[in-house]
């Protein structure tokens, strides 16, 4: 079984919800290689014992660091619990991150319900499933 490379990101008001979701799926999370933005990564590591590679805080460049992984084909899924009711000063970075997932056909879940469906899919963690990666070579 391959080790899925996932990113976990959450805006401040959504961090408790993401932590609850991670704990709900802790057995699946243990099979993943996890990266996260700074504060979110620390919260997850401290409360679950999972190994998390932490990047900078989202507003300080962490969103772009995760975006670089997507653009380089180094991320299998993004779980980004963003807060639609509170404006973020780095909203353009958030939109760019979500856009990159669409550009490179990377699964992205922005709610616990969608995230549940992604990690419980028989395709998640499957060695047989290879998502189509678009070619933009001319």
From TrEMBL:
HAMAP family noted in UniProt: Methylglyoxal_synth
InterPro entries in alphabetical order: Methylgl_synth (IPR004363), Methylglyoxal_synth_AS (IPR018148), MGS-like_dom (IPR011607), MGS-like_dom_sf (IPR036914)
GO annotation, cellular component aspect: cytosol
GO biological process: methylglyoxal biosynthetic process
Gene Ontology MF terms: methylglyoxal synthase activity
Protein name: Methylglyoxal synthase
Cited function: Catalyzes the formation of methylglyoxal from dihydroxyacetone phosphate.
Catalysed reaction, written as an equation: dihydroxyacetone phosphate = methylglyoxal + phosphate
Active site location: 63 (proton donor/acceptor)
Family under the similarity heading: Belongs to the methylglyoxal synthase family.
Keyword line: Lyase
Binding site for substrate: 11, 15, 37-40, 57-58, 90
Source organism (scientific name): Alteromonas aestuariivivens
PROSITE patterns membership: METHYLGLYOXAL_SYNTH, MGS
EC number annotated for this UniProt entry: 4.2.3.3
Domain MGS-like: 1-138
Pfam families: MGS
């Amino acid at each position: 079984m391959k080790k899925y490379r996932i990113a976990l990101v959450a805006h401040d008001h959504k961090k408790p919800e993401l932590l609850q979701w991670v704990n709900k799926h802790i057995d699946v999370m243990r099979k993943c290689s996890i990266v996260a933005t700074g504060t979110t990564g620390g919260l997850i590591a401290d409360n679950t014992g999972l190994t998390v590679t932490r990047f900078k805080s989202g507003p300080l460049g962490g969103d772009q660091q995760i975006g670089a992984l997507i653009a380089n084909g180094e991320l299998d899924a993004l779980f980004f619990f963003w807060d639609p009711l509170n404006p973020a000063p780095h909203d353009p970075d958030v939109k760019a991150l979500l856009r990159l997932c669409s550009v490179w056909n990377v699964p992205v879940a922005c709610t616990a319900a969608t995230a549940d469906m992604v990690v419980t899919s028989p395709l998640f963690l499957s060695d047989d499933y290879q998502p189509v990666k678009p070619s933009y070579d001319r």
